[in-house]
Design a protein that fits this description.
Blueprint lengths: L2 E12 L8 H5 L1 E18 L4 E6 L4 E6 L11 H14 L6 E7 L9 H17 L5 H15 L7 H8 L2 E6 L5 E5 L4 H10 E5 L6 H13 L3 H22 L6 H12 L9 H12 L4 E4 L7 E5 L5 H8 L5 E2 L10 E4 L1
Parallel strand pairs: 3-5
Antiparallel strand pairs: 1-2, 1-12, 2-5, 2-6, 3-4, 6-7, 8-10, 8-11, 9-10
Helix pairs in contact: 2-3, 2-4, 3-4, 3-5, 4-5, 8-9, 10-11
Length: 340
């Protein structure tokens, strides 16, 4: 038997950063995101040997241990090891050897929620194997706890919920880890038009989001008024974009993205840089009406809204920067698990 799972990566459309504590705890956060046809995959295969084998096929990393109930956190394959440790601690149902294999369709640090989505996928494979009675909110919250509490990795809450629930969601974040996922019933023609006009561009760089997020957290703790006001504005941006999308007023989409990009720069240093600014300026000169950096910033993917068939001119201009445009489609479903 092999226990498999896959979970979709996401594009953060608006409100990014307001899901990070302590801002979300004190003021409440709001984010609009949508999952896309890029995935994190996990497979667990029981083996005859009394060993635990973990391999990340996309990163060409592999570790092997004699069977134990707690694996060492060493800096390599820590997400997988941290999940196994928490599953054993909570449930203690694994008694023999297995091989865990993973693959992600986008590189780490790309800004599409790769790490958290991988956590959800791996957790899903364990849920499938052990038949754990966990619902979507349970899985997303447990994934968040493993990343943020067990492994002490800096970040927000949106990615775990996006990967688990899938689709287009308006998410609200409050104190005491309260999260409300509001699935949006967007007319298919609006989504098709958004998909057609929204260009996903990989800058050919990845970044370490933790340092940017830590500075963002420090700015809130230090009551940095400029940074906090920017987050307030990003929260409003998420509400504006939700209304734009639900009512099919996509001509406003680029301007709302551009407004958010201006605000995001104020949250922390290194969210933008000279390369990102140059790419952004070139995309707008070619016809994009707005865009943003996906994720914490500093590199990875960017998105641009390109109305009236300007996507082709924008893509041609972006090709001069050494990155690549990534084809995608929006997905309805989140975490999916099965057994073969």
């Amino acid at each position: 038997m092999i226990y498999r799972s896959k979970a979709p990566l996401r594009i953060g459309l608006a409100g990014g950063g307001t899901d990070v504590s302590p801002y979300s705890d004190e003021f409440g956060g709001a984010i609009l995101n949508a999952t896309v046809s890029l995935f994190a995959y996990a497979s667990i295969e029981p083996i005859a040997e009394n060993k635990i084998i973990i391999e990340a096929l996309d990163r060409k990393e592999r570790e092997e241990y004699d069977f134990t109930n707690s694996l060492p956190i060493t800096g390599t394959l820590d997400l997988a090891k941290g999940i196994y440790n928490r599953v054993q601690k909570n449930y203690g149902l694994i008694h023999s050897g297995f091989k865990l294999s993973t693959f992600v369709d986008a590189p780490a640090g790309s800004g599409l929620g790769t790490s958290s989505t991988l956590v959800v996928a791996i957790l899903g494979a364990f849920v499938e194997m052990l038949k754990l009675p966990l619902g979507d909110y349970d899985i997303a919250h447990l994934a968040f706890q493993i990343e943020r509490e067990d492994l002490q990795l800096a970040g927000g809450k949106q990615d775990q919920y996006a990967a688990t629930f899938g689709g287009v969601n308006f998410m609200e974040f409050y104190g005491n880890d309260k999260v409300i996922v509001n699935p949006l019933r967007v007319r298919p023609e609006y989504l098709h038009e958004l998909e057609n006009n929204l260009v996903l561009y990989f800058t050919a760089t990845s970044r370490e989001s933790a340092m940017i997020i830590k500075e963002q957290v420090k700015n809130v703790n230090d009551k940095n008024e400029k940074s906090i006001e920017a987050m307030h504005q990003l929260k409003e941006q998420a509400k504006m974009m939700k209304e734009s999308l639900l009512r099919g007023k996509l001509d406003q989409f680029g301007e709302i993205l551009d407004f958010g990009f201006q605000q995001k720069r104020q949250m922390a240093a290194n969210i933008s840089n000279n390369t990102i600014e140059e790419i952004y300026t070139a995309a707008k000169a070619a016809g994009a009406t707005g865009g943003k950096i996906s994720g914490a910033g500093g590199g990875g993917f960017m998105i641009f809204y390109c109305p009236n068939n300007t996507r082709y001119a924008v893509i041609e201009r972006l090709n001069n920067f050494g990155g690549m445009v990534k084809n995608y489609s929006f997905t309805k479903y989140g975490l999916t698990t099965w057994t073969v």
